[in-house]
Amino acid sequence: MTRDLTITDIRLTPILVADPPLLNTQGVHQPYTPRLIVEVETAGGFVGVGETYGDSKYLELARPFAGKLIGRQVSDLNGLFVFAEDVAVDRSRVSGQVDVGGLRGVQTADKLRLSVVSGFEVACLDALGKALGLPVHALLGGKVRDAVEYSAYLFYKWAGHPEGVRAEKDDWGAAVDPAGVVEQARRFKERYGFTSFKLKGGVFAPEEEIAAVRALAEAFPGHPLRLDPNGAWSVETSLKVARELGDVLEYLEDPTLGTAAMAEVAARAGVPLATNMCVTTFAEIKEAFTKDAVQVVLSDHHYWGGLRNTQQLAAVCRTFGVGVSMHSNTHLGISLAAMTHVASTVPNLQHACDSHYPWQSEDVLTERLTFDDGKVAVPDAPGLGVELDRERLAELHRRWLDDDGSLRDRDDAAAMRVADPGWVTPPVPRW
Ligand code: GKR
Ligand code: MG
In this structure, are 51 and 161 located in the same domain? Predict the structure, then answer.
Protein backbone atom coordinates (compact mmCIF):
# COMPACT_ATOMS: atom_id res chain seq x y z
CA MET A 1 0.00 0.00 0.00
CA THR A 2 1.30 3.49 -0.84
CA ARG A 3 0.68 6.74 0.94
CA ASP A 4 -1.25 8.20 -2.03
CA LEU A 5 -4.09 9.94 -0.19
CA THR A 6 -6.30 10.56 -3.23
CA ILE A 7 -9.88 9.43 -2.67
CA THR A 8 -10.68 6.87 -5.37
CA ASP A 9 -13.91 5.34 -4.06
CA ILE A 10 -16.66 6.07 -1.55
CA ARG A 11 -19.21 3.46 -0.48
CA LEU A 12 -22.42 4.51 1.25
CA THR A 13 -24.33 1.72 2.96
CA PRO A 14 -27.66 2.51 4.61
CA ILE A 15 -28.61 -0.03 7.26
CA LEU A 16 -31.39 -0.73 9.75
CA VAL A 17 -30.28 -1.54 13.29
CA ALA A 18 -32.38 -3.14 16.03
CA ASP A 19 -33.57 -0.69 18.66
CA PRO A 20 -35.50 -1.45 21.87
CA PRO A 21 -38.85 0.24 22.66
CA LEU A 22 -37.36 3.29 24.38
CA LEU A 23 -39.86 6.00 25.27
CA ASN A 24 -39.42 9.72 24.83
CA THR A 25 -41.67 12.72 24.68
CA GLN A 26 -42.39 12.16 21.00
CA GLY A 27 -43.36 8.51 21.26
CA VAL A 28 -41.28 5.35 21.17
CA HIS A 29 -38.30 4.12 19.20
CA GLN A 30 -39.09 2.03 16.14
CA PRO A 31 -37.92 -1.62 16.23
CA TYR A 32 -35.22 -0.78 13.68
CA THR A 33 -33.51 2.55 13.16
CA PRO A 34 -31.63 3.82 10.10
CA ARG A 35 -27.90 4.59 10.09
CA LEU A 36 -25.54 5.31 7.24
CA ILE A 37 -22.09 3.72 7.06
CA VAL A 38 -19.55 5.67 5.00
CA GLU A 39 -16.40 4.07 3.57
CA VAL A 40 -13.73 6.23 1.97
CA GLU A 41 -10.98 4.46 0.02
CA THR A 42 -7.67 6.00 -1.00
CA ALA A 43 -5.49 5.28 -4.04
CA GLY A 44 -3.02 3.80 -1.57
CA GLY A 45 -5.65 1.18 -0.61
CA PHE A 46 -6.54 2.51 2.84
CA VAL A 47 -10.23 2.41 3.78
CA GLY A 48 -11.67 4.71 6.43
CA VAL A 49 -15.10 4.26 8.02
CA GLY A 50 -17.61 6.78 9.34
CA GLU A 51 -21.19 6.66 10.56
CA THR A 52 -24.06 9.13 10.64
CA TYR A 53 -27.84 9.44 10.50
CA GLY A 54 -29.36 7.25 7.80
CA ASP A 55 -32.81 8.77 7.23
CA SER A 56 -33.57 9.56 3.60
CA LYS A 57 -33.01 13.30 3.98
CA TYR A 58 -29.39 12.55 4.92
CA LEU A 59 -28.95 9.94 2.16
CA GLU A 60 -30.20 12.47 -0.41
CA LEU A 61 -27.31 14.74 0.56
CA ALA A 62 -24.68 12.09 1.14
CA ARG A 63 -24.88 10.68 -2.40
CA PRO A 64 -24.09 13.87 -4.37
CA PHE A 65 -21.60 14.89 -1.68
CA ALA A 66 -19.69 11.62 -2.11
CA GLY A 67 -19.49 12.26 -5.84
CA LYS A 68 -17.75 15.60 -5.24
CA LEU A 69 -15.01 14.05 -3.11
CA ILE A 70 -13.62 11.54 -5.59
CA GLY A 71 -10.16 12.69 -6.66
CA ARG A 72 -9.69 14.92 -3.57
CA GLN A 73 -7.17 14.29 -0.82
CA VAL A 74 -8.39 12.42 2.24
CA SER A 75 -6.39 14.95 4.29
CA ASP A 76 -8.41 17.90 2.96
CA LEU A 77 -10.77 18.03 5.92
CA ASN A 78 -11.49 21.75 5.57
CA GLY A 79 -12.49 21.13 1.96
CA LEU A 80 -15.35 18.91 3.14
CA PHE A 81 -17.22 21.96 4.42
CA VAL A 82 -16.64 23.86 1.19
CA PHE A 83 -17.94 21.03 -1.01
CA ALA A 84 -20.92 20.49 1.29
CA GLU A 85 -22.06 24.04 0.53
CA ASP A 86 -22.48 23.01 -3.10
CA VAL A 87 -24.91 20.23 -2.28
CA ALA A 88 -28.47 21.47 -2.75
CA VAL A 89 -30.90 20.73 0.07
CA ASP A 90 -34.52 20.00 -0.83
CA ARG A 91 -36.44 22.89 0.76
CA SER A 92 -39.29 20.64 1.87
CA ARG A 93 -36.76 18.94 4.16
CA VAL A 94 -36.00 22.08 6.10
CA SER A 95 -38.74 24.68 6.03
CA GLY A 96 -39.97 24.77 9.59
CA GLN A 97 -39.83 21.01 9.94
CA VAL A 98 -39.06 19.66 13.35
CA ASP A 99 -36.72 16.70 13.44
CA VAL A 100 -38.16 13.28 14.14
CA GLY A 101 -37.69 12.57 17.76
CA GLY A 102 -38.29 16.34 18.10
CA LEU A 103 -34.89 16.53 19.52
CA ARG A 104 -32.99 19.00 17.39
CA GLY A 105 -35.41 21.87 17.04
CA VAL A 106 -36.05 23.40 13.63
CA GLN A 107 -34.09 21.80 10.80
CA THR A 108 -31.92 24.00 8.65
CA ALA A 109 -30.02 23.13 5.49
CA ASP A 110 -26.77 23.71 7.37
CA LYS A 111 -27.67 21.31 10.16
CA LEU A 112 -28.48 18.61 7.62
CA ARG A 113 -25.25 19.21 5.72
CA LEU A 114 -23.11 19.17 8.87
CA SER A 115 -24.60 15.86 9.98
CA VAL A 116 -23.63 14.38 6.62
CA VAL A 117 -20.16 15.95 6.67
CA SER A 118 -19.51 14.40 10.10
CA GLY A 119 -19.73 10.84 8.72
CA PHE A 120 -17.27 11.67 5.95
CA GLU A 121 -14.91 13.60 8.20
CA VAL A 122 -14.63 10.62 10.54
CA ALA A 123 -14.07 8.26 7.59
CA CYS A 124 -11.35 10.55 6.19
CA LEU A 125 -9.64 10.77 9.57
CA ASP A 126 -9.78 6.98 9.89
CA ALA A 127 -8.22 6.51 6.43
CA LEU A 128 -5.62 9.20 7.08
CA GLY A 129 -4.68 7.67 10.43
CA LYS A 130 -4.32 4.24 8.83
CA ALA A 131 -2.15 5.66 6.04
CA LEU A 132 0.09 7.51 8.52
CA GLY A 133 0.09 4.79 11.17
CA LEU A 134 -1.43 7.17 13.72
CA PRO A 135 -4.57 6.95 15.89
CA VAL A 136 -7.27 9.55 15.22
CA HIS A 137 -6.62 11.19 18.59
CA ALA A 138 -3.05 11.89 17.47
CA LEU A 139 -4.36 13.56 14.31
CA LEU A 140 -6.49 15.73 16.61
CA GLY A 141 -3.50 16.85 18.63
CA GLY A 142 -3.14 13.95 21.04
CA LYS A 143 -5.12 12.45 23.88
CA VAL A 144 -5.04 14.03 27.31
CA ARG A 145 -6.62 10.94 28.93
CA ASP A 146 -6.41 7.21 28.28
CA ALA A 147 -10.07 6.40 28.89
CA VAL A 148 -13.29 8.37 28.44
CA GLU A 149 -16.06 8.19 31.00
CA TYR A 150 -19.66 7.60 29.93
CA SER A 151 -22.87 7.76 31.91
CA ALA A 152 -25.68 5.21 31.97
CA TYR A 153 -28.46 6.40 29.69
CA LEU A 154 -31.68 5.26 31.36
CA PHE A 155 -34.94 5.17 29.44
CA TYR A 156 -38.50 4.44 30.35
CA LYS A 157 -39.26 1.46 28.17
CA TRP A 158 -41.68 -1.33 27.49
CA ALA A 159 -40.64 -4.95 27.87
CA GLY A 160 -41.04 -5.37 24.12
CA HIS A 161 -42.30 -3.74 20.96
CA PRO A 162 -46.06 -4.08 20.40
CA GLU A 163 -47.45 -7.54 19.60
CA GLY A 164 -47.31 -8.47 15.97
CA VAL A 165 -44.49 -6.02 15.15
CA ARG A 166 -41.33 -7.60 13.71
CA ALA A 167 -38.60 -6.80 16.23
CA GLU A 168 -35.58 -8.22 18.03
CA LYS A 169 -36.06 -9.08 21.70
CA ASP A 170 -34.04 -7.35 24.43
CA ASP A 171 -33.32 -8.57 27.94
CA TRP A 172 -33.74 -5.27 29.80
CA GLY A 173 -37.39 -5.76 30.74
CA ALA A 174 -39.86 -2.96 31.29
CA ALA A 175 -39.17 0.31 33.12
CA VAL A 176 -42.29 2.41 33.52
CA ASP A 177 -42.07 3.45 37.16
CA PRO A 178 -39.41 4.40 39.75
CA ALA A 179 -38.71 0.78 40.71
CA GLY A 180 -38.23 -0.19 37.06
CA VAL A 181 -35.87 2.76 36.50
CA VAL A 182 -33.79 1.83 39.56
CA GLU A 183 -33.63 -1.79 38.42
CA GLN A 184 -32.46 -0.69 34.98
CA ALA A 185 -29.81 1.54 36.57
CA ARG A 186 -28.58 -1.38 38.68
CA ARG A 187 -28.13 -3.48 35.58
CA PHE A 188 -26.27 -0.67 33.83
CA LYS A 189 -23.95 -0.42 36.79
CA GLU A 190 -23.43 -4.17 37.02
CA ARG A 191 -22.87 -4.69 33.30
CA TYR A 192 -20.78 -1.63 32.49
CA GLY A 193 -19.68 -0.04 35.76
CA PHE A 194 -21.32 3.33 35.08
CA THR A 195 -21.39 5.62 38.06
CA SER A 196 -23.50 8.48 36.75
CA PHE A 197 -27.05 8.17 35.44
CA LYS A 198 -29.16 10.13 33.02
CA LEU A 199 -32.89 9.53 32.76
CA LYS A 200 -34.68 10.39 29.54
CA GLY A 201 -37.76 12.23 30.76
CA GLY A 202 -40.71 14.01 29.17
CA VAL A 203 -42.56 10.69 29.09
CA PHE A 204 -44.66 10.75 32.25
CA ALA A 205 -46.02 13.65 34.30
CA PRO A 206 -43.17 15.54 36.03
CA GLU A 207 -44.20 14.25 39.50
CA GLU A 208 -43.58 10.67 38.36
CA GLU A 209 -40.21 11.54 36.88
CA ILE A 210 -39.25 13.44 40.04
CA ALA A 211 -40.12 10.30 42.02
CA ALA A 212 -37.92 8.21 39.70
CA VAL A 213 -34.93 10.52 40.15
CA ARG A 214 -35.49 10.55 43.93
CA ALA A 215 -35.52 6.75 43.88
CA LEU A 216 -32.23 6.78 41.95
CA ALA A 217 -30.72 9.19 44.47
CA GLU A 218 -31.69 6.87 47.30
CA ALA A 219 -30.42 3.75 45.55
CA PHE A 220 -27.15 5.34 44.41
CA PRO A 221 -26.25 8.04 46.94
CA GLY A 222 -23.67 10.54 45.74
CA HIS A 223 -23.83 9.41 42.08
CA PRO A 224 -24.27 12.24 39.56
CA LEU A 225 -27.85 12.28 38.18
CA ARG A 226 -29.41 14.05 35.22
CA LEU A 227 -32.94 14.35 33.87
CA ASP A 228 -33.70 15.28 30.24
CA PRO A 229 -37.32 15.84 29.11
CA ASN A 230 -36.27 17.21 25.70
CA GLY A 231 -37.97 20.56 26.26
CA ALA A 232 -41.34 19.12 27.30
CA TRP A 233 -41.87 21.48 30.26
CA SER A 234 -42.92 25.10 30.68
CA VAL A 235 -40.64 27.51 32.54
CA GLU A 236 -42.77 27.14 35.69
CA THR A 237 -42.71 23.34 35.56
CA SER A 238 -38.95 23.38 34.95
CA LEU A 239 -38.47 25.58 38.01
CA LYS A 240 -40.66 23.32 40.13
CA VAL A 241 -38.63 20.25 39.09
CA ALA A 242 -35.39 22.15 39.74
CA ARG A 243 -36.62 23.08 43.24
CA GLU A 244 -37.57 19.51 44.05
CA LEU A 245 -34.47 17.84 42.66
CA GLY A 246 -31.89 20.59 43.03
CA ASP A 247 -30.05 18.76 45.80
CA VAL A 248 -29.44 15.61 43.75
CA LEU A 249 -29.02 16.76 40.15
CA GLU A 250 -25.66 17.24 38.46
CA TYR A 251 -27.62 19.15 35.82
CA LEU A 252 -31.05 19.44 34.30
CA GLU A 253 -30.96 18.90 30.54
CA ASP A 254 -33.17 20.89 28.13
CA PRO A 255 -36.06 21.24 30.58
CA THR A 256 -37.76 23.75 28.29
CA LEU A 257 -37.55 24.78 24.65
CA GLY A 258 -35.62 27.73 23.25
CA THR A 259 -32.84 29.95 24.50
CA ALA A 260 -35.13 32.61 26.01
CA ALA A 261 -37.05 30.10 28.13
CA MET A 262 -33.85 28.27 29.10
CA ALA A 263 -32.38 31.61 30.23
CA GLU A 264 -35.42 32.26 32.41
CA VAL A 265 -35.09 28.86 34.04
CA ALA A 266 -31.32 29.16 34.40
CA ALA A 267 -31.66 32.50 36.20
CA ARG A 268 -33.84 31.04 38.96
CA ALA A 269 -33.25 27.27 38.99
CA GLY A 270 -30.15 27.03 41.14
CA VAL A 271 -29.18 23.94 39.11
CA PRO A 272 -26.91 24.00 36.04
CA LEU A 273 -28.71 23.55 32.71
CA ALA A 274 -27.26 21.42 29.93
CA THR A 275 -28.38 21.39 26.32
CA ASN A 276 -28.21 19.47 23.10
CA MET A 277 -31.20 21.36 21.73
CA CYS A 278 -30.84 25.12 22.04
CA VAL A 279 -27.13 25.23 21.17
CA THR A 280 -26.40 22.87 18.28
CA THR A 281 -24.58 25.24 15.92
CA PHE A 282 -21.89 27.90 16.28
CA ALA A 283 -24.47 30.53 15.30
CA GLU A 284 -26.56 29.74 18.39
CA ILE A 285 -23.71 30.14 20.88
CA LYS A 286 -23.58 33.93 21.18
CA GLU A 287 -27.15 34.49 22.30
CA ALA A 288 -27.17 31.50 24.65
CA PHE A 289 -23.89 32.40 26.34
CA THR A 290 -24.74 36.11 26.54
CA LYS A 291 -28.00 35.27 28.28
CA ASP A 292 -26.33 32.64 30.46
CA ALA A 293 -29.02 30.23 29.25
CA VAL A 294 -26.86 27.10 29.48
CA GLN A 295 -24.05 26.01 31.74
CA VAL A 296 -23.08 22.82 29.88
CA VAL A 297 -23.16 22.24 26.11
CA LEU A 298 -23.54 18.63 25.07
CA SER A 299 -21.66 18.34 21.85
CA ASP A 300 -22.57 15.75 19.27
CA HIS A 301 -20.02 15.41 16.51
CA HIS A 302 -22.80 14.41 14.10
CA TYR A 303 -24.62 17.70 14.73
CA TRP A 304 -21.53 19.88 14.79
CA GLY A 305 -19.94 18.58 11.61
CA GLY A 306 -17.29 16.28 12.98
CA LEU A 307 -14.50 15.87 15.47
CA ARG A 308 -12.54 19.03 14.72
CA ASN A 309 -15.63 21.21 15.07
CA THR A 310 -16.28 19.48 18.38
CA GLN A 311 -12.82 20.55 19.53
CA GLN A 312 -13.58 24.11 18.41
CA LEU A 313 -16.83 24.07 20.33
CA ALA A 314 -14.96 22.86 23.41
CA ALA A 315 -12.51 25.75 23.04
CA VAL A 316 -15.34 28.28 22.84
CA CYS A 317 -16.96 26.75 25.93
CA ARG A 318 -13.66 26.91 27.79
CA THR A 319 -13.29 30.58 26.84
CA PHE A 320 -16.69 31.42 28.30
CA GLY A 321 -16.46 29.19 31.35
CA VAL A 322 -19.27 26.93 30.07
CA GLY A 323 -18.98 23.19 30.64
CA VAL A 324 -18.84 20.69 27.80
CA SER A 325 -19.77 17.06 27.47
CA MET A 326 -21.33 14.82 24.82
CA HIS A 327 -24.82 14.06 23.62
CA SER A 328 -25.84 10.83 22.01
CA ASN A 329 -28.57 9.52 19.82
CA THR A 330 -28.85 5.92 18.62
CA HIS A 331 -25.41 5.01 17.23
CA LEU A 332 -23.04 2.14 16.60
CA GLY A 333 -19.42 1.41 17.47
CA ILE A 334 -17.88 3.55 14.73
CA SER A 335 -19.45 6.63 16.26
CA LEU A 336 -18.58 5.51 19.79
CA ALA A 337 -14.96 5.17 18.72
CA ALA A 338 -15.09 8.61 17.09
CA MET A 339 -16.63 10.14 20.23
CA THR A 340 -14.00 8.48 22.39
CA HIS A 341 -11.11 9.75 20.27
CA VAL A 342 -12.30 13.35 20.28
CA ALA A 343 -13.35 13.29 23.94
CA SER A 344 -9.87 12.09 24.83
CA THR A 345 -8.43 15.30 23.36
CA VAL A 346 -10.71 17.78 25.14
CA PRO A 347 -9.00 19.05 28.30
CA ASN A 348 -12.15 20.70 29.68
CA LEU A 349 -14.44 17.67 29.56
CA GLN A 350 -15.88 17.69 33.08
CA HIS A 351 -18.91 15.41 32.82
CA ALA A 352 -19.36 11.78 31.78
CA CYS A 353 -20.53 11.59 28.13
CA ASP A 354 -23.85 10.14 27.00
CA SER A 355 -24.02 7.06 24.82
CA HIS A 356 -26.92 4.98 23.52
CA TYR A 357 -24.47 2.20 22.61
CA PRO A 358 -25.47 -0.24 25.39
CA TRP A 359 -28.98 -0.26 23.88
CA GLN A 360 -27.65 -1.40 20.51
CA SER A 361 -27.31 -5.19 20.48
CA GLU A 362 -26.17 -5.09 16.85
CA ASP A 363 -23.07 -3.56 15.33
CA VAL A 364 -21.07 -3.56 12.11
CA LEU A 365 -17.69 -4.09 13.79
CA THR A 366 -15.76 -7.34 14.10
CA GLU A 367 -15.39 -6.54 17.81
CA ARG A 368 -17.72 -4.45 19.97
CA LEU A 369 -16.27 -1.64 22.04
CA THR A 370 -16.56 -2.25 25.77
CA PHE A 371 -17.19 -0.14 28.85
CA ASP A 372 -15.02 -0.96 31.85
CA ASP A 373 -15.77 0.91 35.07
CA GLY A 374 -18.03 3.08 32.90
CA LYS A 375 -15.15 4.03 30.62
CA VAL A 376 -14.08 3.27 27.06
CA ALA A 377 -10.32 2.90 26.62
CA VAL A 378 -8.99 5.27 23.96
CA PRO A 379 -7.79 3.14 21.02
CA ASP A 380 -4.13 3.64 20.05
CA ALA A 381 -4.20 1.56 16.85
CA PRO A 382 -4.01 3.51 13.57
CA GLY A 383 -7.18 5.37 12.60
CA LEU A 384 -10.24 4.81 14.76
CA GLY A 385 -8.90 1.42 15.83
CA VAL A 386 -12.04 -0.46 14.74
CA GLU A 387 -12.65 -2.98 11.95
CA LEU A 388 -15.71 -3.27 9.76
CA ASP A 389 -17.48 -6.64 9.69
CA ARG A 390 -18.51 -6.74 6.04
CA GLU A 391 -20.85 -9.70 6.42
CA ARG A 392 -22.72 -8.01 9.22
CA LEU A 393 -22.85 -4.77 7.27
CA ALA A 394 -24.33 -6.66 4.29
CA GLU A 395 -26.97 -8.29 6.53
CA LEU A 396 -28.09 -5.02 8.05
CA HIS A 397 -28.10 -3.43 4.60
CA ARG A 398 -30.25 -6.33 3.35
CA ARG A 399 -32.74 -5.49 6.11
CA TRP A 400 -32.80 -1.88 4.84
CA LEU A 401 -33.32 -3.07 1.24
CA ASP A 402 -36.13 -5.42 2.28
CA ASP A 403 -37.96 -2.73 4.24
CA ASP A 404 -41.05 -1.34 2.53
CA GLY A 405 -39.89 2.16 3.39
CA SER A 406 -41.78 2.45 6.66
CA LEU A 407 -38.65 2.20 8.82
CA ARG A 408 -36.19 4.10 6.67
CA ASP A 409 -37.08 7.40 8.33
CA ARG A 410 -37.15 7.44 12.09
CA ASP A 411 -40.60 8.37 13.33
CA ASP A 412 -41.17 7.86 17.05
CA ALA A 413 -44.76 9.15 16.88
CA ALA A 414 -45.67 6.68 14.13
CA ALA A 415 -44.13 3.87 16.18
CA MET A 416 -46.25 4.94 19.17
CA ARG A 417 -49.41 4.89 17.05
CA VAL A 418 -48.96 1.15 16.57
CA ALA A 419 -49.72 0.73 20.27
CA ASP A 420 -51.93 3.80 20.66
CA PRO A 421 -53.69 4.67 17.37
CA GLY A 422 -54.88 8.03 18.70
CA TRP A 423 -51.35 9.22 19.56
CA VAL A 424 -50.29 12.58 18.19
CA THR A 425 -46.99 14.33 18.89
CA PRO A 426 -47.77 16.26 22.07
CA PRO A 427 -47.79 20.05 21.86
CA VAL A 428 -44.94 21.78 23.66
CA PRO A 429 -44.80 22.55 26.53
CA ARG A 430 -46.53 19.32 27.36
CA TRP A 431 -46.54 20.03 31.08
O1 GKR B 1 -33.27 8.48 21.55
O2 GKR B 1 -35.20 8.99 22.36
C3 GKR B 1 -34.03 9.24 22.16
C4 GKR B 1 -33.41 10.49 22.72
O5 GKR B 1 -34.39 11.34 23.17
C6 GKR B 1 -32.53 11.14 21.71
O7 GKR B 1 -33.16 11.13 20.49
C8 GKR B 1 -32.08 12.52 22.08
O9 GKR B 1 -31.54 13.15 20.97
O10 GKR B 1 -30.76 11.42 23.68
C11 GKR B 1 -31.03 12.56 23.10
C12 GKR B 1 -31.04 13.75 24.03
O13 GKR B 1 -30.23 13.78 24.91
O14 GKR B 1 -31.84 14.67 23.83
MG1 MG C 1 -30.71 15.76 25.60
Answer: no
Together in a domain, 65 and 166: no
* Domain with 21 in it: 7-137+389-402
Are 263 and 177 within one domain?
A: yes
Pocket of ligand 1 (CB under 6 A): 22, 24, 101, 103, 200, 228, 230, 276, 327-330
Ligand 2 centroid distance, CA of 277 (Å): 7
| Known catalytic residue at 301 | no
Contact 172, 360 (CB under 8 A): no
Inter-axis angle of helices 333-344 and 109-132, nearest 10: 80
Q: Position 193: which residue type?
A: G
Whether this prediction's pTM lies above 0.85 is answered by yes
Q: How do residues 174-183 score in pLDDT, each as one tens digit? A: 999 999 999 9
CA of 203 to the centre of ligand 1 (A): 12
Do residues 212 and 260 both lie within one domain?
A: yes
Quick check: is 327 catalytic?
Answer: yes
The reply to whether 21 and 170 lie within a common domain is: no
Contact between 275 and 90 (Cβ < 8 Å): no
Q: What's the rounded Cα separation, in Å, for the pair 228 and 276? A: 10
Total count of domains within the chain: 2
**What are the start-end ranges of the E strands in 21-101?**
23-24, 27-28, 32-42, 47-53
Tell me: the pLDDT tens digits for 8-62?
999 999 999 999 999 999 999 999 999 999 999 999 999 999 999 999 999 999 9
Q: What CA dihedral angle connects 42, 44, 45 and 48, to 10 degrees?
A: -40
- 279 and 396 together in one domain: no
